[in-house]
Structures are given as C-alpha cells and as structure tokens.
Batch of 2 targets.
Target 1
Amino acid sequence: EVQLVESGGGLVKPGGSLRLSCAASGFTFSSYSMNWVRQAPGKGLEWVSSISSSSSYIYYADSVKGRFTISRDNAKNSLYLQMNSLRAEDTAVYYCASSGSGSYPDYWGQGTLVTVSS
Amino acid sequence: NFMLTQPHSVSESPGKTVTISCTRSSGSIASNYVQWYQQRPGSAPTTVIYEDNQRPSGVPDRFSGSIDSSSNSASLTISGLKTEDEADYYCQSYDSSNPWVFGGGTKLTVL
C-alpha cells in the first residue's frame, strides 16, 4: 500500500522558515517524480514544486520561486520542502504527491498545515 | 499559461446523473491528459479519473471522464449519485510550460 506521510508543519512568523518532510513507502520511491501541492484555507489546489526521480529536473511555481527549495533523499525514501521568507499567503495545507508519469499526481499524502502569522 | 475553468457548484438528487465541466482557456484540451480528483471535507484529494477517461482500481464505474475538442473541455460524469459522492472535484492538466494546472474546483451537493 502506498503511503505518503508529511510532517514539519506548524505556526511560523512572517519572514520565518520551515522545512517540510514527506516519508514515502509502498512503492519504488526512486523511480517516481515527487511534488508539493498546497491548499489555502477554503481555496483550491495549487501546484508548488516538482522534482524528478534523480533530482535532475526541478520546477517551482512563480509564487514560491527563490524562496522555496525542493529536495529528495532516495536512500531515505523522503521528500523535503525548505520554505524561507514565509508570507501570510503561504498559509495552507501542504500535500506531497507522487507521480509516475510526471504529468499528474498518482497518490497524495494527508497533508501538513503551515500557518504564517504574527 | 492556460487556465482550467470549472463551475463553482452543482447539485443533483440521489440516483440521478451529474456532469462537471472543465474548460481549457488556451491550447487544445486533447493535447494533454486531463485528470479528476475527489476531495471530501477534511481529507486529501484522491484520483477518480486519470488520462481523460481511465478509472483507478477501486473507483466505481459510475464515474466516467471524457473530452470534447469542439468546446475545448473535459467532463466528469457521475451516474447513480450517492450521498457519499458529495465532495469537491478538481480537474487537472499540464503542458510543456506548466507542470500542473488545477481547475478551481466544483462543489457537488447531493440532495
């Protein structure tokens, strides 16, 4: 059974930093692209960032470019999102999602809530 | 960049059929696969349709997907509506310049 478990969310002040993690199991992690998608309270889904299976290709939404860094450790079956210079508008539930094709999500984690507020 | 536009909400009675549309603003809807995700309140999204019209195992055949090039749109049809189908539904697609694009979501009410 595929499992994606996010952690690391919490309350942080504007301008602060947070590192999210996603632990994967039940599939060959090193063969899949991995992604972060967020959902602000009461809003829709927004793609944040993607990383290819070998980390050769990395993409960011314009809204987070230069502030967020995606990475992965295939030996640990883990995905990360380093979030710096956080803003109120970054407040959201952050989901990690696997993608076999790279073009769409296959499986989703349960999400971790990030709240940016003073 | 292209956008995917969905109706904000739809409602229908149990046992009936409902169709949710997803219109692509630029570029051909047929050029890139469209996926559909169901999200119940407080839960993560799950895939109900992938690659335009494919159902993951475990998704009932009451759910079907299609694309219409004439209207440049995709559709999710749910037949034999059940109260458990009440949820938000999101379409998603992509192209070479836009890794993942989601529609704004449609709230389905089964009343």
Note: Residues 34 and 63 of chain B are 14 Å apart (CA to CA).
Target 2
Amino acid sequence: DIQLTQSPSSVSASVGDTITLSCRASRNIATWLAWYQQKPGKAPKLLIYAASSLHSGVPARFSGGGSGTEFTLTINGLQPDDFASYFCQETNSFPLSFGGGTKVDI
Amino acid sequence: QVHMVESGGGVIHPGKSLRLSCAASGFAFSQFTMHWLRQTPDGRLQWVAVISPDGDDKFYVESVMGRFAISRDNSGQTLSLHMTSVRADDTATYYCARESDGASTDFDFWGQGVLVTVS
C-alpha cells in the first residue's frame, strides 16, 4: 500500500499570505494525486486532480505541483474562506490512500 | 445539481450489523463508479469500498473485506453499505462519494456523511 505523509500537520497564517503544503508518497505515483479541502463538520471538497489540474469552480489561487513522490499545494493570497484542513489522496491504486492532513488556521 | 444524502448511521454494539444508504440525485447515477469512504474520530480519511456502474465489480479495503458489502440500485439511484461484525475501529463518519469522470480515481462529489459509533 502507498503511504502519504503530509507536512506540516498544522500551519498558522494570515489573510493574504502565500503558503505551500507538502505531501510525500512512499513510492513513485507519477501524477496520480488529488488535493481536498475540508471544513469542520463538512465533507471534503476536491480542489486539484492529476497533481496540478484545477477542479471546476476552484479559485485560481489554488495550485498543485510535483510528480513522483513529492507534491505541493500552494495557496496564493489566503482568503478567510481558506482556513480549513487539506488532504492529499493517491488516485491510481487500490487501496486508495490519504495523507494525514494539514490544518491551516489563523 | 448533484446531491447525495447518507442515512442509517447510529450507535451499534460490537459484532452487530448495520446498513448505510446513500440517496443520489441530480446526475446519471447508473453511469458513475461509486465509493464509500470513512473518517475516523482522529480525522484520518480512509477509502472503504468501490462499486462499478453496473454493480458487477467491487473492491474493499482489507480491514473490511468479508464483513462489509457494497451494493447499488441504479433504478432507485441508491448506494448501500451493509456492515456486519462491526468492531470498535469501524467507528467513523461514513461518506458516499462519486468518482470523477476522468482517468484518476478522485471524488468530485461527496455526501454530507453519517456517523457510525460502535460501542
């Protein structure tokens, strides 16, 4: 099974900041990676698929990068609505796996 | 618009059975691969099971294999998860999710989730 390790586990930031979250895979997964945003009490929402493709309706301040084993999610100009938890997910092989998440708070 | 609503959760004793349902609307349910996922109390997300559009192909995470069964009723636009021999570590919020219409197995729509507590 593929293990995904996210770092940091939490980060404090301010509105307007640019932050980069990391996700490391235990083996090469090419670009088979997705990113989700989750707010308390709500289901996750898809942000990025195929490592760098923006899901429909997601603001352009979100961007994904990386391939192989190292991936990033960058938020350019944090907005109040962006304070949430973010998860990465491997999207190619069963059992599908998720990272442990990064919480972004004020 | 796409909408999915889970039901059937609650508190259940270890070793007992429970059936979760997911009512889908707003899209051609019969054309999409569907999944169950869960989120444990510590916040970790775990993929649980998948079923093909026609219901013929199913896969499970090892920890639920032989205990859980995923099924679907395309005419009723409903996804189900029959949970048997439940254990304390099955305690989680369970989500149904639609697999995106693309090459990768990501999830573009999720239900609101239903809590299952094994105690």
Note: The mean pLDDT of chain A is 97.
